[in-house]
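Review form for a predicted model. The reviewer records the input and the model, then writes brief findings.
Reviewer: anonymous (R2)
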Amino acid sequence: MSRLLLSLALLALSPALLAVQARPATAPATAAPPPPRPEVLLHTSMGDITLELYPDKSPKSVANFLEYVRDGFYDGTVFHRVINGYLIQGGLYTRQLTPRRTRAPVPAEADNGLSNLRGTVAVARGAAPNSGTSQFFINLVDNRRLDYTGSQSGLTWGYTVFGKVIKGMKVVDKIAKLPTHAQGPFAGDVPEPLVVIESAKVIGDTSAPAHTGSTPAPAPKGKPAAGKKR
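Model under review:
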């Protein structure tokens, strides 16, 4: 009798055992893909330029740039410095070559491992490493002499790369070929005609700009720049 009861018990358990055996193994958890890099469309009087930004490499510089973009700060500013075979620079001066009032400088991140190669976008600044605000430049060639080589001085700190041109490099090259002259506070390198950033927008961002950023600032004693050739 006991053997019969044991056999019945095993038969009763067998469907459950089969169900456990047939259950597929749980797939291993996969890491979430990294968020897409933000992109900014510069609509200029010479054509459109699309930038891809690197928040993973230059988080402070990217956050600073995006805040200026979302504020509408760049709308109506110009590329005021054009040196063919070197760079084009903008992001501060209006059509009248009057500087706009900026926020506090952003800390330098030039030691992020990125190089000032053709098409990359970097923070323009003065002599001090941590003096960059709204100005940026686009490298026309591989400017490795602008890279970080050490923290000894402003020269060795180099210039922070925080993005690159992914569309519109032909527009950048067209700007680079414009004739230049002295105008306003600048002794040279101002393109003719002035190239206006008519609007700057984060692609896919539907939020309206908080303000236009059109309040002029007193003219600086020395223009922030991407550094002289050395």
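Findings: The mean pLDDT is 85.
Further findings: The CA atoms of residues 10 and 17 lie 10 Å apart.
Recommendation: see findings above.
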